Amino acid sequence: MTYANISGWGKCLPPAVLTNDDLATFLETSDEWITSRTGMKERRISHVNVSELAYVACQRALAAAGKTPQDVDLIVFGSTTFDEICPNAASNVQRLLGAEKAACIDVSTACTGGMYSLTVANSMIRSGVVSSALVIGAECISPIMDWTNRDVAVLFGDGAAALYLESCDEKTGVLAESLGCYGEARDILSVHGWGMKYANQQKYFGESNWAFIGQEIFKKAVSGMAQACDKVLEKSGVLAENINLVVPHQANLRIIDTLVKKLKMDKDKVFVNIEKYGNMSAATIMVALVEAVEEGRVQPGDTLLMPAFGGGLTWSAHLIKWGNSITPSASSDVELAKCKESGLTLVENIINSKG
């Protein structure tokens, strides 16, 4: 039987940091207010488009796997903030990499985008359609953020991560997954102004206002992720106590804590980096996975549980058996273009451009 081993991983975080104190300069908020409600201390603001973040993350994933762009059969790009709708963003990553052999797919499921993309790539490798794939989760949310809305402006940031998958005979990679959606609740988390139905209705195409009903999102997020986790454990026959590490979507520390209690998991087995990046939507859970590997929290043969939820309201969980790769084969010298501005200045520029 064919499996899809994760043999490479990489991330790309833009250098400009936006702190809670920065947000307090133009919103009625404070570091204490944000931290106590979300667990977030800072987030990144990108000075480049999302495809460029994805390109750098992919180069780092390829280097970690000891591969070149010519080894890539497929690129699956999960995001909500693609540079363009047509042509797709995955094709731009292909062009930047020089991965001429690669087929290119975009996946848009908001915060679950990286994990849904993992399912697409895993399924295509296991079915024999392709032998290798780059899976991307990346976002540049800052240009479409409603920076006047405290409920959402404090939550989100920009970033990217990528995984390299290749076919193998060993039982490794994604062993079970569960995907779903509360379509009837889609309006409680939505971005009005982002999409073609708004194309002729506003002066600035990125101008938006966000519908975000926090209490309802909280309930749906915990419910969706919990049932997805139960399903993958049942499918795989793995007991919860045998999970080595839980890498959840990092949307809110209270959601993570509630989910962990509901699953009766040991909190010491949960990876959290929300304080550094906030919610990077499709990039969030994949950046967390990359950092868990970098920090030695993932060891060969470990079993990982990765629940996520996002707009739609989509939800998912993936059970992953990690292979033997925990040390990068090489590093990449590819870097983002230099950023000369602070995170606060970048945000002020966005706000002024919409004025």
The helix fraction, in percent, is: 25-40%
> Per the principal axes of the C-alpha atoms, what is the gross shape?
globular
Count up the helices.
11
Rg from C-alpha positions? 19 Å
Sheet with most strands: strand arrangement: 1-7-6-4-5
| The number of domains | 2
List low-pLDDT spans.
Answer: none
Return the CATH topology of the largest domain.
Peroxisomal Thiolase, Chain A, domain 1
CATH homologous superfamily descriptor of the largest domain = Thiolase/Chalcone synthase
What distance separates the N and C termini? 57 Å
SS content category: alpha/beta
Overall mean pLDDT stands at 94
CATH architecture of the largest domain: 3-Layer(aba) Sandwich
Residue share in β-strands? 15-25%
Commentary on this structure:
Residues 105-183 form the Beta-ketoacyl-[acyl-carrier-protein] synthase III N-terminal domain. Pfam families: ACP_syn_III, ACP_syn_III_C. It is found in: Cytoplasm. With 355 residues, this protein is α/β, with parallel strands linked by helices. It folds into 2 domains: 3-171 and 335-353, Peroxisomal Thiolase, Chain A, domain 1; 175-274 and 297-321, Thiolase/Chalcone synthase (Peroxisomal Thiolase, Chain A, domain 1). Helix content is 32%, strand content 23%. It has 11 helices and 13 strands. It has helices spanning 20-23, 31-38, 50-65, 89-97, 113-126, 150-153, 214-236, 253-263, 274-277, 284-294, 343-353; strands spanning 3-12, 16-19, 42-45, 74-78, 103-107, 132-139, 159-168, 173-181, 189-192, 209-212, 245-246, 303-310, 314-321. It has a 5-stranded mixed beta sheet with strand order 1-7-6-4-5, sandwiched between helices. The protein has a 4-stranded mixed beta sheet with strand order 8-13-12-11, sandwiched between helices. Helix 4 (89-97) links the parallel strand 4 and strand 5 (103-107). The protein is globular, with a radius of gyration of 19 Å. 51% of the residues are buried. The mean pLDDT is 94.
